[in-house]
Write a structure and sequence with these properties.
Elements (H helix, E strand, L loop, with lengths): L7 H8 L4 H13 L1 H8 L16 H27 L11 E5 L2 E6 L8 H7 L4 E3 L5 E3 L2 E4 L4 E4 L6 E7 L2 E2 L1 E5 L2 E5 L6 E6 L16 E5 L1 E6 L1 E4 L10 E5 L10 E5 L13 H8 L13 E5 L10 E5 L5 E6 L2 E3 L3 E6 L5 E8 L6 E3 L4 E11 L6 E3 L4 E6 L11 E4 L21 E3 L2 E3 L4 E6 L2 E6 L2 E3 L3 E6 L3 E6 L2 E3 L4 E6 L5 E4 L2 E3 L3 E6 L3 E4 L2 E5 L2 E8 L3 E4 L2 E6 L1 E9 L2 E3 L7 E3 L3 H7 L3 H28 L3 H5 L24 H21 L9
Parallel strand pairs: 2-5, 4-7, 5-9, 6-10, 7-11, 9-12, 10-13, 11-14, 12-15, 13-19, 14-20, 15-21, 19-22, 20-22, 21-23, 22-24, 23-25, 24-26, 25-27, 26-28, 27-30, 28-31, 29-32, 30-33, 31-34, 32-35, 33-36, 34-37, 35-38, 36-39, 37-40, 38-41, 39-42, 40-43, 41-44, 42-45, 43-46, 44-47
Antiparallel strand pairs: 1-2, 3-4, 7-8, 16-18, 17-18
Length: 682
């Protein structure tokens, strides 16, 4: 929680870096009322994110938490009395007033017609007062009971100022009822906190501040300008839509005469209960299981009961908000335990914490064209157990934290005091939206499953899209990420099944970063990376990097030397990548064991080839001795030569000729060898 001490209006102006002209305009606007203040707040701001709120000191934090505890106690007292008061007579079935330690509260009881401004003037003439400028000053809290309807609107426009100062504050709380605040394009409804002593909105939340809350029931807000509401917690943060995880006590009906499930039943709402009691049909998603019958049994032996109670279902709030602005609240808009909320064409800015928060068990919420910018926390927060949320066409610029935060982590990781479930949450989508110039990330995903971040424009953040903490099946498709300070897309810390496809990342140090996670990175374009286009680090079993167009200046387009496990680095277009690795570093990279083995094999082949060539040269040139050198039997003595003669018939001419030639040759060879004699074989 953040706070503003001293002149907090001046602090906000300094944080948002307004010009001197804007300061003058805002000073004049403060005299003119909340409408002009809202107009001044729309002055264009720089592209620098707002400064984070300073931390609270221990004394201020204790003070605000004590105020919250007192407010919770007041609502608990009101609910206890309101639930039983009608049982004590008809006087409690029409509007009445309760006094608590925190002041007076006007209780609007159930009736068919909605309560209007005219009714409030009659019911609370001293605490709902029309001012000279046409505005209305509310001096006591209003409690809209279950079944009651409060319609705050006026034909010529309505300006409602809720008392809020160091002595206390008022609130409008609908508990299971219907609260409607509707203005028009020409005459918007204006609601703000108001310090009558200074004739200005209350900008200091440290002692509590006026707020509006719907607990269950329905809430409608159209063409409204709300400013400077709320303090400390989400439920008292400004405009809060909260349900409960308990049945609504006021909706319990009975006892009524018991009707056997085997007989004819007149009430339609008991049919689903009868199905389950008979055990013939399984429960369906369309069954109304939130409302059921409870049988009362007398003490003693179990017999047929004599009566039944109808118990209300869980209290969930449903709401429609459109064409409105919320400025300077503690939490701009806080939603929890809500089903079917629709918010469109609404601007939230200047929040002391986060802009729009979808808290636990907010489901099936549609946000369209919502601008949550220049808040001192995150722009949009989807907290744990918020699921089936769709955000489209929305803007989160210049927040001190993230533009969008999606937290799908389990409520518990094991046995816990609250007994929370251990499953992840998800099925959330951000599409066609913008997150620019935020102090932290453009989009941060913390766990969860089935998350889609598609076709968004994200620029000028510390990092563009960050996915971490064991998320599953996150799809990042078609996003345009520009000028991030570090990574364009970062997926890390145990994420599985991520898809990164069709994104364009320009001007980041590292385009796409994957650490200890699995992802399919295909069809992306990385431009102007200053370190790596794609980096794989740690265990990336099953990662795939292919068919990407990678350009930039750095040590490598795809860096995978620090990764381990199975991966596929396929064909990527790296023609536009300029490698700045020094030559010595490139040579050292070759000193890999496998590389050394292949170099050794290559050298053996070269040496064998050179030696063989030298041997062949010796066979074709040089002396006989050189030729004989190296022959395998050069040191062996040759065998004596035996000259075979030819037997011929004595007296023939041929025999005489042939006999004479061997004899002559033998004689000559014998003379040459000395004592060796060769005799012809006859």
């Amino acid at each position: 929680m953040t706070s503003r001490t001293g002149n907090s209006m001046r602090t906000r102006l300094t944080a948002t870096a307004l010009t001197a002209t804007a300061l003058t305009a805002l000073a004049l606007a403060a005299l003119a009322g909340p409408a002009a203040v809202g107009a001044a707040a729309d002055t264009p701001d720089s592209t620098v994110p707002v400064a984070a709120a300073p931390p609270l000191d221990a004394t201020t934090a204790a003070k605000e938490s004590a105020v919250l505890a007192a407010e919770d106690r007041r609502l608990s007292q009101l609910r206890s009395v309101v639930s039983v008061a009608p049982l004590h007579g008809d006087a409690w079935k029409s509007p009445y007033r309760l006094a608590t330690a925190s002041g007076y509260t006007l209780v609007l009881t159930s009736r068919k017609a909605a309560y209007t401004v005219a009714d409030l003037l009659k019911l609370a003439p001293e605490t709902f007062v029309r001012q000279a400028d046409g505005s209305y000053l509310l001096l006591e809290s209003i409690y809209v009971d279950n079944g009651a309807k409060l319609n705050l609107t006026a034909p010529g426009g309505l300006t409602l100022r809720m008392a809020s100062n160091v002595n206390g504050f008022v609130s409008i709380v609908a508990f299971g009822g219907s609260l409607s605040m509707v203005g028009s394009v020409q005459q918007p409804l204006r609601i703000t906190s108001w310090d009558a002593r200074t004739a200005k909105p209350d900008t200091d939340p440290t002692d509590g501040r006026a707020y509006i809350r719907a607990i269950g029931g329905t809430f409608t807000m159209e063409h409204v300008e709300a400013s400077d509401l709320g303090f400390w917690s989400g439920r008292t943060g400004g405009i809060s839509l909260t349900g409960t995880d308990r049945p609504n006590t006021g909706s319990t009906q009975g006892p009524t005469p018991y009707v056997s499930v085997h007989g004819k039943v007149a009430r339609k709402d008991s049919k689903a209960a009868q199905k389950l009691q008979k055990g013939k049909d399984a429960a369906k998603s369309t069954d109304n299981l939130g409302t059921s019958g409870v049988d009362s049994l007398p003490a003693g032996a179990i017999a047929t009961p004599g009566s039944q109670f109808d118990v209300g279902g869980l209290s969930y709030v449903s709401a429609t908000i459109s064409d409105s602005t919320i400025t300077g609240d503690a939490y701009g808009l806080f939603v929890s335990s809500a089903n079917g909320v629709q918010i469109s064409r609404t601007k939230i800015s200047g929040s002391l914490v986060d802009g729009l928060v979808l808290y636990r068990f907010a489901t099936q919420v549609v946000l369209e064209k919502v601008d949550s910018s220049r808040n001192q926390g995150d722009g949009f927060v989807l907290a744990r157990a918020a699921q089936e949320i769709r955000i489209s066409g929305s803007t989160a610029n210049q927040n001190s934290g993230n533009g969008f935060t999606l937290n799908g982590q389990p409520l518990a990781t094991g046995p816990s005091a609250s007994g929370g479930p251990v499953g992840s949450y998800g099925n959330n989508t951000i599409a066609n939206s913008t997150a620019n110039d935020n102090g932290h990330y453009g989009v941060e995903v913390l766990g969860g499953m089935n998350i889609n971040i598609d076709n968004n424009a994200i620029a000028g953040n510390t990092m563009g899209i960050v996915v971490r903490r064991d998320s599953q099946k996150v799809s990042l498709v078609g996003n345009i990420l520009t000028a991030q300070q570090r990574e364009g897309i970062s997926i890390r810390d145990g994420n599985t099944g991520a898809t990164v496809s069709g994104n364009i990342v320009t001007g980041a140090q590292t385009g796409i970063y994957l650490r200890d996670s699995t992802a399919e990175i295909t069809g992306n374009t990385v431009k102007g990376a200053a370190l790596h286009a794609v980096t794989l680090v740690g265990k990336d079993s099953g990662a795939k990097v292919s068919d990407n167009v990678l350009s930039g200046v750095g040590t490598s387009a795809v860096s995978s030397s620090r990764s381990e496990g199975s991966r596929l680095v396929g064909s990527n277009d790296t023609i536009g990548w300029h490698n700045t690795t020094p030559l010595l570093t490139r040579m050292l990279r070759l000193l890999h064991p496998t590389t050394l083995v292949w170099i050794g094999v290559f050298l053996l082949i070269v040496v064998a080839g050179v030696k063989g060539r030298r041997t062949r040269r010796m066979h074709t040139s040089g002396s006989s001795r050189d030729l004989l050198a190296g022959l395998p039997y050069q040191d062996k003595t040759p065998l004596p030569q035996v000259i075979l003669g030819e037997l011929a018939t004595p007296g023939s001419e041929s025999s005489g000729r042939h006999a004479a030639q061997p004899a002559a040759q033998g004689t000559a060879q014998a003379a040459a060898r000395g004592s060796d004699r060769l005799e012809p074989v006859g």
